[in-house]
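pinned: reference chain
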Amino acid sequence: MAETTATSNPPDVVEISASDLPACCPPAEIDPASLHPRVYLPIKKGGGHAVCPYCGAGYRLHSDSV
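pinned: its structure tokens
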């Protein structure tokens, strides 16, 4: 599972695994009420990365998950 924390300074890149797909920001386990609307990011099992349009957090599929 992706390890993130709800802070005002998002990490540069969040490594996620295939089991975390579909990827969303903020992650499903974090209550988005005090952050920004939850958005799903276009990362597919074939690899790739995406950036949250709200907070700028980057998400990348971990290379072992491809």
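why pinned: The mean pLDDT is 78. The chain has one domain: 13-65.
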